[in-house]
Design brief:
Blueprint (H helix, E strand, L loop, with lengths): L4 H4 L5 H14 L5 E2 L11 H11 L14 H15 L9 E4 L2 H12 L5 E6 L4 H8 L3 E6 L15 H6 E6 L12 H14 L2 E5 L21 H4 E6 L12 E5 L1 H12 L7 H12 L3 H23 L3 E2 L7 E5 L6 H12 L1 E2 L1 E2 L10 E5 L4 H18 L1
Parallel strand pairs: 1-11, 3-4, 3-5, 5-6, 6-7
Antiparallel strand pairs: 2-8, 7-8, 9-10, 10-13, 12-13
Helix pairs in contact: 3-11, 4-11, 5-6, 5-10, 12-14
The structure holds pyridoxal-5'-phosphate.
């Protein structure tokens, strides 16, 4: 059997590789502490699960859902955007439910990229932006995110010929993996760039609800003109601890939303309806659960940052996202540093290069490990630091 060039050209999905390493160690009886994956350990709030259970018993929800989602789910998404960001959306034309935002992010390149086209993709970044570009036959032109530019891409440095071939621009704030945040002034510059060069903007925003110290991340859709040039991908995964339920949404430009719907309607049959009702419950229900989760992450962040600093890592306390992006000490590559930690302490962090070349010199530490693991992990890291000083 010969698999397609598409498959051959695919790097192994980073987290699959990490999971395999963890599984090998666990099979040898070692206790591994993982700070690697951004998957909330906190449970989905009760009121959301109750609704799911109730709806699962209704035979009307046992049949094929529609790709474009239940009308009441689209209304709930539009209302949530209005309450949270002051953004007005037409639930019929500007909102599309997704089977988790990853699904939409993966498919949207098929809407705008033809062979030979360019997608502008940040580096480091969530790997799906460049992989989906490759699946569509396009090329990624990487935009370095560095400490000097606050991990925001410098759009003025993109060569004119690249702008000419570019069809899409990917952005993600609050950012994975750097934890950087963007303000409305940056998004205004993005709209101007997109209009001048006729590129569509895809803003991936699953972390807008995970924020600390009173900080409230903004939506790309808040800036004038955003709806003319872009879609925003959002998700219930991180806001409501619902990664396992697979439910998210794309909102914004009606033509872009329609193009994505046309691709999806040929590939999937939508989100199980009981899950859509659970998502409605999440969006319409008490939002205190978000504050409660964030206070847990904030407490963890405040415990982890000083230990990393004492280990000689360069760390800024993040304002948002589930991650700490830490500059590693000289003398290691990120892969070597992550590997040394895993071998010598059994603690897993993600090497920055898993997110692109510009991730060299960094590791990503996630705040989603259970408290007991964090305590144990930090004790091991402190002891490791002690043994080397
Ligand atoms: C930046 C970013 N985008 C999208 C996703 C996908 O989220 P989901 O498919 O669960 O909505 C993730 C998950 O970790 C992410 O970090």
């Amino acid at each position: 059997m010969r698999v397609s060039k598409r498959i051959e050209g695919l790097p192994p999905y980073l987290f699959v590789r990490i999971s395999q390493k963890i599984a090998e160690k666990r099979a040898r009886g070692e206790r591994v502490i993982s700070f690697a994956i951004g998957d909330p350990d906190l449970p989905t709030p009760e009121h959301i699960i109750d609704r799911l259970c109730r709806e699962a018993r209704d035979p009307a929800n046992h049949r094929y859902p529609e790709t474009y989602g239940l009308p009441e789910f689209r209304v709930a998404i539009a209302e949530w955007y209005r309450r949270r960001f002051g953004v007005v959306l037409d639930p019929d034309t500007e909102v599309l439910p997704l089977i988790g935002s990853k699904e939409g992010i993966g498919h949207v390149a098929l809407c705008f990229i033809d062979p030979g086209d360019i997608a502008l993709v940040p580096d480091p970044a969530y790997p799906v932006y460049s992989v989906s570009t490759m699946f569509a036959g396009g090329e990624s032109y990487f935009l370095p995110l560095t400490e000097d530019n606050g991990f925001l891409p410098d759009l003025d440095r993109i060569p004119a010929d690249v702008c000419g071939r570019a069809k899409m621009l990917w952005l993600n704030y609050p950012n994975n993996p750097t934890a950087a945040v963007a303000g409305l002034d940056f998004f205004e510059r993005v709209v101007d760039f997109a209009m001048r060069h006729d590129v569509v903007v895809c803003h991936d925003a699953p972390y807008t609800e995970v924020a600390f110290d009173g900080y409230e991340p903004v939506s790309f859709m808040q800036v004038p003109g955003a709806k003319e040039v872009g879609l925003e991908f959002h998700s219930l995964s991180k806001s409501f601890n619902m990664t396992g339920w697979r439910v998210g949404m794309a909102v914004g430009n009606a033509e872009m939303r329609d193009a994505l719907m046309r691709i999806k309607s040929n590939l999937d049959s939508g989100i199980p309806q009981a899950i859509q009702y659970a998502a409605i419950q999440a969006l319409q229900g008490d939002q205190d659960c978000i504050r409660e989760s964030n206070s847990v992450y904030e407490r963890r962040r405040d415990a982890i940052v000083p230990v990393l600093s004492e280990m000689g890592l360069r760390v800024k306390s993040p304002k948002a996202s589930l991650y700490i992006w830490a500059g590693i000490p000289d003398g290691y590559t990120s892969a070597e540093f992550a590997s040394a930690l895993l071998e010598e302490t059994g603690v897993v962090v993600t090497p920055g290069t898993g997110y692109g070349k510009c991730g060299e010199g960094y590791v990503r530490v996630s705040l989603t490990a259970p408290d007991a693991d964090i305590e144990e992990g930090l004790a091991r890291l402190s002891a490791w630091r002690g043994s080397r000083s």
